[in-house]
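ok so I'm stuck.
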Amino acid sequence: MTSRLQNQIESLIFDLFGVIVAFDDGLVYDRIAQRCPNPTEAALHLFNLVSDPSLICGRKSLQQLHTQLVVEVELSASLEEFEALWISSYSEPMPGIRELLRQLARQCKLVLLSNIDPYYWQTVQASIPELDSFHAKVLSFEQGVAKPNTQAFENAIAASGVAVGRCYFVDDKSENIKAAAAIGLAGHAFTSCRALKAKLRQAGLHLQ
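replied:
not stuck anymore, here's the structure
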């Protein structure tokens, strides 16, 4: 794969969570659970809530989610309080990623491909100003489709304006890498900035 990519990367398509930002979504579940009569049971019920397909694909509002949780886990927080709990940060920049993005932005088009809701997106945007240098942002709540759906990858490739053979995808989940590969989009399973830099150097990019 490396030889095929040599000197051919014109666009890098980046996942957000687990690649650009390290995160612990358990923090938001714990904050919400503390506003319920049985926090332990509530936390279990809330597991993976930030990845709710209806929410990240823009079909469910935070107000609707609040109403749902009032019924399901007896959430006592008001809508305003719940919104504050939801958008409070549970992520931070991955070590080394900000400088890496600055270097990459000078050499190729950067495209963000993220499964994210419109509410927490505002928090992430504010914390990673380097995202402003991205050529395009393909966000599930705007597209109405999320990875690993093939359409999500096709949308990102189209947004790059670059042929699929000259795009390269970076994600921390193997199922997304495999789904992208099925439509000809080569990729790298992210473990660290150091490993990603080594891979991109082999592909012909100049990185310090």
